[in-house]
Specification:
Elements: H1 2-8, H2 21-31, H3 44-63, H4 65-69, H5 78-103, H6 109-117, H7 134-155, H8 161-189, H9 193-212, H10 224-229, H11 237-255, E1 265-267, E2 272-274, H12 280-290, H13 294-307, H14 309-330, H15 338-348
Antiparallel strand pairs: 1-2
Helix pairs in contact: 3-5, 5-8, 7-8, 7-9, 7-11
This protein binds 3-hydroxybutanoyl-coenzyme A.
């Protein structure tokens, strides 16, 4: 796979002859599957690639809360509502683990958030499509979380320690998300003809954007070759997309739904499904900011950030008070009853 990516990748891998001694030693550690930790030396380009990918990933989790959050007040039962609230909260948590992992590389969270809000940073194309019916919530869990798991399980083995460790926990939670989505689809597919039609309509709208989530074809993937050499990427965009199709088509069959691709065909010789061409013009349009919901998503994120300013200010004020108290405990004023006074301050904190 690695050799294949070097041949087709848009950006070539740095040749060993062009590496400094430090870079060679770093690559040797990567090749030996030794994890990289934040305080260790790393090439600047490795650090920048990780900041780019991890922050885009974090933004995707946070923006991804919006299309599903829209349905919390409209979930059809109390149980579905409780599950959906838990899922949306999980996505917020994933964003926080990922921002924290990126911060270990020396970028501040404020800077990352600023880049997102100013439209300088990307987030997953998939979250720029609208959620029109309850079946969209089922489809997001089934397909979008399913695609996310397919992409993220290999990342649990990636070379950068904090990212790999965050992925382990995130993948466990995404797996629950995928099951809850499939469970919604199962209920709709076994429901009234109208409910089944709603499930089919959602699959029709989300299928192709889900395949786009894996990124451009390998031959056009700018970063793949170098990211594979650094073991940031374990499987290529096309390999993951193929695995996703192979896994998901039988699940659609079980639901009695039709994947909206007339060219879908099981190729017994390859042992994979063949599928039709993806509309890459649509993908590029969406990641340029012109998808159906890009502007609305960013507007909503910026508003949520501004509305939450008072919470951040209150938390900072509380942290400052605690720091002052802690400093007073370390150095009690001369002649003061340090021990007794400190105990009282602690009790009040
Ligand atoms: N949406 C938006 N941008 C995308 C994209 C997508 N689906 N796929 C690729 N791109 C962008 C890349 O970010 C890159 O842009 P940049 O140079 O400006 O940074 C450009 O297209 C070229 O693509 P490459 O294939 O060269 O880029 P990568 O090597 O970074 O591969 C990736 C793209 C496979 C998405 C990789 O970054 C990755 O594995 N990221 C981690 C996983 C992730 O971010 N998933 C997002 C979904 S998370 C989620 O769905 C949340 C869950 O709760 C459901």
């Amino acid at each position: 796979m690695y050799a294949q990516m070097v041949d087709t990748g848009v950006k070539a891998v740095q040749a060993a002859a062009d590496m400094t001694a430090d870079e060679k030693a770093f690559q040797a550690r990567i090749d030996a599957d030794i994890r990289v930790e934040p305080k260790e030396w790393m090439p600047e380009a490795y650090r920048r690639t990780l900041i780019r990918q991890i922050s885009q990933h974090a933004h995707s989790e946070i923006v991804g809360m919006l299309p599903e959050g829209n349905w919390i007040t409209r979930a059809p039962t109390l149980k579905r509502k409780a599950i959906l609230m838990a899922k949306v909260q999980d996505e917020g948590g994933h964003g926080l683990y990922l921002y924290a992992a990126a911060e270990t590389l020396g970028v501040s969270r404020d800077r990352m958030v600023d880049d997102l809000h100013a439209g300088r940073a990307k987030y997953s194309s998939i979250f720029n499509y609208p959620t029109l019916t309850w079946a969209d919530i089922g489809t997001i869990g089934w397909l979008v979380d399913g695609a996310a798991i397919m992409n993220q399980i290999p990342l649990c083995r990636c070379s950068f320690g904090p990212y790999a460790r965050a992925m382990v926990r995130i993948c466990k939670e995404e797996s629950f998300h995928q099951r809850q989505g499939y469970d919604i689809m199962l209920a709709l597919a076994r429901g009234t003809p109208e409910q089944k039609a709603m499930a089919q309509d959602a699959l029709d709208r989300w299928w192709w954007p889900s395949l786009m989530m894996f990124g451009p074809p390998d031959a056009q993937s700018v970063h793949s070759a170098q990211s594979a050499a650094w073991k940031i990427k374990i499987l290529s965009n096309d390999e993951l997309r193929q695995r996703f199709v192979d896994q998901t088509v039988p699940q659609a069959d079980y639901l009695g739904l039709t994947v909206p691709d007339p060219e879908l065909n099981w190729d017994a010789e390859r042992g994979h499904y063949d599928f039709g061409p993806i509309d890459w013009a649509e993908f590029h349009n969406v990641i340029k900011g012109n998808g159906p919901c890009n502007r609305e998503r960013l507007r909503t994120r910026v508003k949520a950030w501004e509305d939450g300013a008072w919470v951040r200010e209150a938390a900072m004020a509380h942290a400052e008070k605690r720091a002052v108290r802690a400093a007073a405990r370390v150095a009690p004023p001369a002649g003061a009853d340090g021990g007794e006074r400190t105990a009282r301050v602690d009790a009040m904190a």
